[in-house]
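hey
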């Protein structure tokens, strides 16, 4: 069966406290009343839902289950939502599929085979999330299959191979996990190769625009791509793509692909995972495996940019394993600890711990999102928790257990259109959380 391609769509919304706005280009009009979560961690890749009028507490046993879908296959992909459809990925039978579902019922609309299954020792299946951009969808499989599909019917538009086309390399062995970025006319991704650490492609044709050579900077970690996804920064007055790679965090000029800066101290030798947070001239970054976190300031440097360390927190102070972080005003909220999701609130400008709850309601790492004043913590054991997003104190509001958890419950939650979507391997649960 031919390989197919997914086309990610990042539509941009302007958010006053965030600098992740994506360059505008002409795209089909969409229904602004439709739920919209078009990419990894939402439209701005920050984990922040724009939903309001949501429940302040959940009923005992959890919110109402509106529908449940099955046959999604194995994997840890989250969801993207646009134009009345849900998109995800899974290993089914003898191949890996991109899958589209009806938003109102969970009924499967189409599926497209993009490559072989991913079945290493443990943690089988894809882990990246499709990106939707107008009529196109972009997706990346663990083997390096990068595809662009028509979002309406799953028909392949183009296909590239991260390893064969760009000499791609992963820093460690759990497969490509990146959700591709759409920025204007470009699709940007991270092969991790010696001469193509990052590449920009024409999003319509897959044609190469530039490739960025990333030097081996620092002694921590190792060369190659990691498990994070690219975000956009205007720090230091230069539009750039910021990514956590095997050697640490890097900045690449968005126009030319020129390597601008690298920061090695936040890298570890096993797996660098959380997507960095960007605000104004600052980058907040972290990784697990006892590594820690750092705040960087981007400053003009000749015709480029350099990154200055504002502070570094060691792993005992703060480390985020793979559940992600959200930034709200002056504070970062996340799960702290390796293989732990202990809820924590940090003052990001100073690194001060405002509060930490060392025994969260669930166990293992926690995937975190935000909506309407509250944090949504999804723990590795399948406990879903609603926690107040306030620096005043730790406020646990509600919990419930996701059904039939048999594997690490890692897929990130999605909040859109007054509903909470939770992918659990082969199943997808849709809950009504509107007030």
């Amino acid at each position: 069966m031919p390989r197919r391609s997914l086309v990610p769509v990042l539509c941009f919304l302007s958010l006053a406290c965030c600098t992740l706005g994506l360059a505008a280009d002409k795209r089909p009009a969409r229904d602004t009343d439709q739920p919209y979560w078009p990419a990894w961690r939402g439209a701005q890749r920050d984990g922040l839902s724009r939903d309001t009028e949501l429940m302040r507490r959940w009923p005992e046993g959890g919110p109402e289950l509106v529908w449940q879908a099955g046959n999604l296959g194995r994997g840890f992909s989250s969801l993207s939502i646009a134009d009345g459809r849900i998109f995800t990925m899974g290993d089914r039978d003898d191949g890996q599929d991109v899958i589209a579902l009806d938003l109102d019922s969970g009924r499967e609309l189409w599926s497209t085979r993009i490559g072989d299954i991913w079945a290493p020792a443990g943690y089988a299946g894809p882990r990246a999330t499709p990106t939707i951009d107008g009529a196109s969808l972009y997706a990346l499989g663990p083997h390096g299959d990068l595809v662009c599909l028509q979002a309406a019917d799953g028909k392949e538009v183009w296909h590239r191979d991260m390893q064969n086309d760009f000499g791609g390399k992963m820093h460690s062995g759990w497969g490509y996990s990146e959700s591709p970025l759409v920025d204007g006319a470009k699709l940007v991704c991270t092969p991790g190769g010696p001469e193509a650490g990052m590449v920009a492609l024409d999003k319509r044709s897959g044609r190469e625009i530039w490739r960025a050579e990333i030097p081996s900077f620092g002694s921590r970690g190792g060369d190659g791509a990691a498990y994070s996804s690219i975000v956009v920064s205007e720090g230091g007055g230069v539009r750039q793509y910021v990514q956590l790679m095997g050697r640490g965090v890097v900045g690449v000029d968005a126009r030319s692909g020129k390597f601008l800066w690298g920061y090695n101290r936040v890298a570890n030798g096993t797996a660098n995972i959380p997507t960095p947070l960007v605000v104004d001239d600052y980058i907040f970054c972290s990784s697990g495996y006892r590594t820690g976190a750092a705040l960087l300031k981007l400053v003009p440097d000749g015709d480029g940019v350099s990154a200055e360390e504002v502070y570094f927190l060691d792993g005992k102070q703060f480390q985020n394993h793979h559940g992600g972080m959200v930034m709200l005003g002056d504070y970062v909220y996340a799960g702290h600890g390796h293989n732990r999701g202990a809820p924590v609130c940090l003052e990001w400008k100073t690194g001060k711990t405002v509060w930490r709850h060392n025994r969260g309601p669930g166990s293992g790492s926690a995937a975190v999102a935000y909506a309407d004043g509250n944090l949504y913590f999804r723990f590795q054991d399948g406990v879903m928790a609603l926690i107040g997003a306030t620096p005043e104190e730790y406020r646990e509001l509600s919990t419930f257990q996701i059904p039939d958890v048999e594997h690490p419950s890692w897929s990130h939650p999605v909040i859109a259109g007054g509903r909470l979507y939770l992918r659990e391997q082969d199943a997808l649960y849709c809950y009504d959380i509107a007030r």
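The radius of gyration is 20 Å. Residues 1-31 have pLDDT under 50 and may be disordered.
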